[in-house]
Design a protein that fits this description.
This protein has 17 helices and 14 strands. The strands form 2 sheets. Strands 1, 2, 3, 4, 5, 6, 7 and 8 form an 8-stranded parallel beta sheet that branches. The two termini are 15 Å apart. Helix 13 links the parallel strand 12 and strand 13. It has 385 residues and is α/β, with parallel strands linked by helices.
């Protein structure tokens, strides 16, 4: 009989839709299928299979099936968290009872009831962590910063998570996507041996002329250093040949700040705003990351693969700084708006140094290819059998 595997979707199984976590889960399903497993992916909400494959530019192996409570057509359905959590736990437990998998893989978190069901059927368990809600609930101030919601909106969720989600040290194996995630998780679960496995990025090809542009794609939550970014752009705008900062998918709060700035100082001193991520990314000379906290930061790697030079805020909680560019080995770091502007303006005028750093960035991005991920994850899966 072929070995069987169950993969619970990202965010504790909530959805298989558009996020980067979903793409990682789909890649994992194909890796398991290549190792000879029959794979079932389980979620509360899921896009139809063809739509899911199209959204992530991936073709699922025929040995991969999807089982969900509700199939999405266009938009994500809004299901209240406690109700959705109960529906998901019941559905996942039924799948475990029917499938009796050899391995059960969870993403970010798993409920205590689902974990008990997996263990009762003899499955080995593996948890893949980006920023676990269990860890968030134990570090509420950091978790609240890593969100656009306020404290009153999140505290009920943290109370629910503490009560119903499993601890990380109850699971057989845990893999994390960065040293930042590992360090945060080990504070509370020091007995769990956690291995870093970097997720795969969509790598582009370097080449072509670069525009005098800086791209910022990090989410604008409470860890976003928006004031510093605006100040840096104001400094850059004073040059005779200014470099323009472009911010991808601005939040409503940041959009209001930029529009006000444009009215008071003019458009030249304000960052540009866009939602055209894929078309602008290959053209940018630099990639910036104005955040003090980010568990990983896959958009930084994608920009580097096109030859953009990463200029990253120095912080021990910033994955692009600690893991992607290794604290300056494959890019540059800054701590203030003035330092950022000096670095960028200096490189823009130095073709030789800029080309050298661009080449290093491209080389480093290759360490996050799908092939590297397949190799690293396959070793973990073979050890978990």
């Amino acid at each position: 009989m072929k070995p069987r595997a169950m993969i619970l979707a990202p965010n504790g199984g909530w959805d298989l839709a558009y996020g980067g976590g979903t793409k990682v889960a789909l890649c994992m399903a194909n890796i398991l299928a290549a190792l000879g497993y029959e794979v079932m992916m389980v979620s509360l909400l899921a896009l139809p299979r063809l739509q899911l494959e199209k959204a992530h530019n991936i073709s699922l192996d025929k040995r991969v099936t999807i089982s969900c409570v509700h199939t999405l057509e266009k938009e994500l359905s809004h299901i209240p968290f406690p109700i959705g959590f109960w529906l998901l736990s019941r559905h996942a437990s039924q799948v475990l009872s029917r499938l009796k998998p050899d391995i059960a893989i969870f993403h970010d978190d798993v409920s205590k009831s689902v974990l008990r069901a997996a263990m009762a059927h003899g499955a080995s368990t593996l948890l893949c962590v980006h920023f676990s809600y269990k860890v968030r609930a134990l570090t509420p101030m950091l978790a609240i910063s890593y969100s656009e919601e306020n404290i009153l909106q999140q505290l009920p969720l943290f109370a629910f998570v503490r009560k119903h989600f499993a601890d990380l040290d109850e699971i057989d194996r845990v893999i994390v996507d960065s040293s930042v995630t590992k360090r945060l998780s080990e504070q509370f679960f020091p007995s769990q041996d956690m291995r870093i496995v970097y997720p795969p990025a969509d790598l582009g090809s370097p080449g072509g002329a670069k525009d005098r542009m800086i791209f910022h794609a990090g989410r604008q939550d409470h860890t976003f250093l928006g004031d510093m970014l605006i100040e840096a752009q104001a400094v850059l705008s004073r040059s005779d040949n200014p470099i323009q900062t472009i911010v991808n998918r601005p939040s409503r709060a940041f959009l209001r700040r930029v529009r006000k700035l444009e009215r008071t100082r003019g458009t030249s001193s304000a960052p540009r705003l866009t939602s055209a991520y894929a078309s602008i990314l290959p053209k940018c000379m630099f990639y910036s990351h104005f955040k003090w906290f980010e568990p990983f930061g896959i958009s930084c790697i994608e920009a580097m693969s096109y030859g953009a030079i990463p200029v990253i805020y120095r912080s021990p909680y910033n994955g692009p700084w600690t893991d992607v560019i290794r604290q300056g080995d494959f890019g540059l770091g800054f701590s203030s708006a003035a330092e950022f502007a000096d670095l960028v303006e200096g490189l823009a005028c130095d073709d030789m140094k800029r080309n050298c750093l661009s080449t290093k960035a491209v080389t480093r991005s290759g360490d996050f290819s799908l092939q590297h991920y397949i190799s690293s994850l396959s070793r973990v899966l073979l050890d978990t059998r």
